[in-house]
Write a structure and sequence with these properties.
Distance between the termini: 41 Å
Structural class: alpha+beta
Order of helices and strands: EEHEEHEEEH
Shape: globular
CATH class: Alpha Beta
Number of helices: 3
CATH topology: Diphtheria Toxin, domain 1
Number of strands: 7
Strand content: 15-25%
CATH architecture: Alpha-Beta Complex
Strand order of the largest sheet: 2-6-5-4
Largest sheet: 4 strands, mixed
Radius of gyration: 15 Å
Length: 156
C-alpha cells in the first residue's frame, strides 16, 4: 500500500518528531506519530486545514510517497471511538486517548482513521516506535507547491 504526506523538507524522515511538539486529533503532544493519507490529494487538503493562513505555508514542502508492505496488517479504528462530535474541534477525548494508546502499546504499525475533511477517504497513522516501521520505504520525495488558484481569496 502507498500512503502520502506533505511535509517540510526538514521533516520528511519517518521519525514522527512532529508529534512531540503539538497535539492532534489522534495523539497527545509528546508522542511520536506520522500522519499519512491514502491519496496525495487528501494529504494536500490535510495540510491546508492545519495552517492558520495560506501565507503560513512554507515554500519548502515535499510530497512524500511511502510504501507500507502488503504483509503488514492495518488496524481500523473501532466504530465505538467515533462518538458524536469525534470530528469536531476541540478534539474529543475518545480519539485522542485511543490514538495515544495505539501509539504507546506499539503492537501495530498502522491505524486507519476516517478523514474529517473528506469522510469517504482515510488517513493512516504510522507508529515510528513500532518495529515494522523499518520495512516502510520512502519511495519518492517531490517538491510540492500548492496551485495558487486553491489559495486564492475569493473576496479579492
Amino acid at each position: 500500500m502507498f500512503v502520502y504526506r506533505i511535509t517540510n523538507k526538514e521533516h520528511f524522515a519517518l521519525d514522527g518528531m512532529g508529534g512531540l511538539y503539538g497535539p492532534g486529533r489522534w495523539h497527545e503532544k509528546g508522542n511520536l506519530v506520522i500522519y499519512t493519507s491514502e491519496h496525495a490529494s487528501l494529504a494536500a487538503w490535510e495540510k491546508i486545514v492545519h495552517v492558520a493562513s495560506f501565507e503560513n505555508l512554507p515554500d519548502n514542502l515535499l510530497l512524500v510517497k511511502i510504501e507500507i508492505p502488503d504483509r503488514i496488517e492495518i488496524q481500523i479504528v473501532p466504530q465505538k471511538v467515533l462518538v458524536k462530535g469525534w470530528n469536531s474541534f476541540p478534539f474529543t477525548n475518545e480519539t485522542v486517548n485511543y490514538g495515544t494508546s495505539f501509539l504507546r502499546k506499539k503492537e501495530h504499525l498502522a491505524l486507519k482513521i476516517p478523514s474529517v475533511i473528506i469522510p469517504d477517504e482515510y488517513n493512516i497513522i504510522l507508529n515510528p516506535l513500532q518495529t515494522d516501521i523499518q520495512f516502510c520505504k520512502i519511495i519518492s520525495t517531490t517538491r510540492f507547491i500548492f496551485d495558487l488558484r486553491v489559495l486564492k481569496d475569493p473576496s479579492s
